[in-house]
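Re: the request from the purification team.
They wanted to know what the chain is likely to look like in 3D before they choose a buffer screen. I agreed to run a prediction and write the result into the notebook, where they can find it.
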Amino acid sequence: MEKNSHELFTLKDFEEQLPANTKNLFRYLMDNNKLEDIQDANVGNLHIISDNVLAMIRKGEIGWEKFVPHKVESAIKEHGLFDYPYQKDNLSVAAAG
């Protein structure tokens, strides 16, 4: 999305803003299917900033779960990913099982 707009920023928009000395490289990448627009993007998720979610996870802040799919939330919590501060109780339960 363009800043302060509700319109998605497409490759065509990007190409129009490129300096002349980079347009040939851009066209090469486009013509060889190395770049493409994302179709049917869920624009409802564009407000999510991954760095902020990662910081929330690392600090153990409540609420980060609503920004990731449920499977991702489960994996992070079960395996202590991204420095998620899981509790030792989880380890003793896993070892006892």
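For the purification team: The two ends are 48 Å apart (CA to CA).
Please add any questions underneath this entry.
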